[in-house]
């Protein structure tokens, strides 16, 4: 495929012919296209994802479409999201080696990325959590990924000129940012066109939340923070559907929402997805108790945050080479305490903000357009609504009271109390 032909969506039938000469692909899977087996597996909302298997091996070909796959041509979305995904993946690979699939090839005109196939037993993390699987390395892997990518993409680490160039590059990811800005921060709090919720069970609570002035003000403050605080390169969509796992390994995928924004956004979104998994367990209990899984999920949130803090602090002490909090002001004058004080301030700011982002992420997954399978796969609507109600109340509490909550143990104690609340 040459880069000059205009964009054309691939299909299972056309892929071997169109990519048969692509060396990045043939090197890995073999040249004999008559032996290639192609499957389209995209269970995502936006793009095409093909698994291509040949004599020698397999690879994934991910291609953007000029519209939102889930909705169709009526919702156009630019092909350039593939460009941002590619550039985010290469930066994540450099900043947190081994945490993303290896990238073999990128074709900007065809909006396609050829990458490593994460073959079974790799599955999507969300699926594993719904199945009640406890993964021992998960918190550690994700905590390290977040600390490394978020620290190393910021002015704490990068050369100012390079960070500004990246800021400019990713600033053009306007359309995907717009999705976050509307779907996450605004739509859940008014009668937006694409919203849906479990009805009629949640109708009363939905009305209550839309009338909740403190909550709406907080959601807009968080939106402002998201839009105005271009602190680091975010993954931008770091939820349990963007992570693939085996029993012992973890890889992040799908960073097409990558954008310069606040560190707390990725961390908050991710933790929210663990808390939602926690509240949804009651709905998946028919084949045995999920007590152990619930305890595991709370432990994962605490451990992820602890690993994040420890690694971020380690990088602060050893790799603080950017223009912020220069060593010349602190360590070089023998003032290690000053550097530690600044670090504490930064971490406590991230903590307060991540609670806000987490709270509204919970809301938008239950009230907005993009729901998640944790709740959606609970067939009994009343039971699902109970799980969702608890999650919504939890989300409201942590978003509105985020400045008064000081530790993750406090949050997890609250989550456990709400989960056990029998009147809901
Ligand atoms: P979208 O951007 O459309 O949401 P994703 O990147 O999330 O697409 O991919 C959709 C699905 O394709 C994933 O849920 C996963 O099942 C599969 N997938 C994507 N990338 C890979 C990969 N590198 N290896 C194996 N499966 C993958
Ligand atoms: Mg995606």
From TrEMBL:
GO molecular function: ATP binding; S-methyl-5-thioribose kinase activity
InterPro entries tied to this protein: Aminoglycoside_PTrfase, Kinase-like_dom_sf, Methylthioribose_kinase
EC number annotated for this UniProt entry: 2.7.1.100
Kinase keyword on record: yes
Keywords of the record: ATP-binding, Kinase, Nucleotide-binding, Transferase
Entry's family note: Belongs to the methylthioribose kinase family.
PANTHER family named in the record: METHYLTHIORIBOSE KINASE
Name assigned to this protein: S-methyl-5-thioribose kinase
Species assigned in the record: Mesorhizobium tamadayense
